[in-house]
Design a protein that fits this description.
two-stranded antiparallel ribbon, alpha/beta, globular, Rossmann fold, 46% helix, 7 strands
Length: 208
């Protein structure tokens, strides 16, 4: 019999938070790419990965990203635009988290960076809804590296069998499952609600 979850762990972008980077990057490129192409290249981009594990300063990231992606924009202008790519909670996310927080510990685990994390924390006030907010650039490793889940569990002082994890990237879900966490691939609030309901974690359709 599976243990009833003690803690719900959420990815942010694409699950609870709107991330507009794949759309907003398109007009900055010299060579046109579709949003799906941008997403694939972003996930595989070594410059993004280095920034998201804390190995680059924002200025270094901007300079290398512009060169790698063949963009015609000054670094400071790019960083200003880049900062705004994290847009805030998707509609219904705050209410859902408020409902869940009455019954469960809540935390988030995101592949992020110093620029977006600062905006999430201060401008958007996202982290008031969580017991802990964990980011790849602070943990020094990146989903789907198994080490990031081990470090998250240690920071949260919880065993993997007591956690449910929700992410929109299949590889991240599979990696969490490999370390013993029950993990689910969901995109957006509607899918997240449906998954939570299927697991018996939401007791009414409105989530109130």
């Amino acid at each position: 019999m599976q243990r009833h979850p003690e803690l719900l762990l959420f990815d942010l972008g694409g699950v609870l938070v709107e991330f507009s980077g794949f759309r907003d990057l398109r007009p900055l490129l010299r060579v046109p790419l579709s949003e799906s192409e941008i997403r694939q290249q972003w996930i595989a981009c070594p410059v993004v990965r280095a920034f998201e594990v804390g190995h680059l300063t924002p200025q270094q990231f901007a300079e290398r990203f512009i060169a790698t992606w063949n963009m015609a924009v000054p670094p400071l202008d790019f960083l200003q635009a880049f900062r705004a790519w994290t847009r805030g909670f998707l509609p219904g996310a705050r209410e859902l988290l408020a409902t869940l927080r009455r019954r469960y510990r809540l935390a988030c685990l995101s592949n992020s960076n110093a620029v977006h994390w600062e905006r999430n924390a201060h401008d958007l006030q996202l982290f008031t809804h969580f017991e802990a907010a964990l980011s790849s650039h602070l943990l020094g490793c990146h989903k789907p590296d198994p080490v990031i889940y081990q470090r998250a569990l240690a920071a949260l002082r919880v065993g993997p069998d007591a956690v449910l994890f929700f992410d929109d990237v299949a590889a991240n879900v599979e990696a969490a499952q490999a370390v013993g966490i029950r993990a689910f691939q969901v995109a957006g609030i509607t899918e997240l609600r449906a998954c939570l309901s299927a697991q018996g974690l939401l007791h009414d359709p409105a989530g109130t």
